[in-house]
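Example record for the data management plan.
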Amino acid sequence: MTNKLAALTLSTALVALAGPALAQSQGDWTVGFGVGYLDPKSDNGTLAGADATIDADTRPIFTAEYFVRDNLGIELLAATPFKHNISLNGVETSSVKHLPPTLSLNYHFPTNSAWKPYVGAGLNYTIFFDESLDGLEIDNSFGVSLQAGLDYMVSDAGAIRLNVRWFDIDSDVKLNGSDIGTAEIDPYLIGVSYVHRF
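Corresponding structural encoding:
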């Protein structure tokens, strides 16, 4: 676990010690709307013998979560397509779009305050499309996802959410049908959203 995710996980655990009460109840739904900044790790592997770099992007994100038990929810993350420029040895060569649907199991710590931390783990399926370089093909990816977040209740049913997710995304890359390497993306998604409970 890297420093950003470890720090947020620690902070959510400390807030959770504030005390019991005010749980999310079994049968509740939440829907969230916000923006997410997706930032791939700095070293993205070697493609066609060159060092690959994939840049960051910011897009709208959406979540829906159903509580199967008190404080325990199943969440789906969706977004509008992220677009990334791909550079080889510092020279921009292509761009690609992707969708990152992610299904997670989240635990929301009960507290006696307006601050409500949570942690989650799940599975991500990343769909790549619209590669701008003719003959370039980036395979879809399936991997784990981890997250930690913090809700601040602004009303009985509404909250502002800050969260950080990490995705394990490694995709094989082909050019004109020939393998040229693996893109090691492994990005963070930093999100700010409004979340409403029904």
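Summary line stored alongside the record: The longest strand covers residues 115-129.
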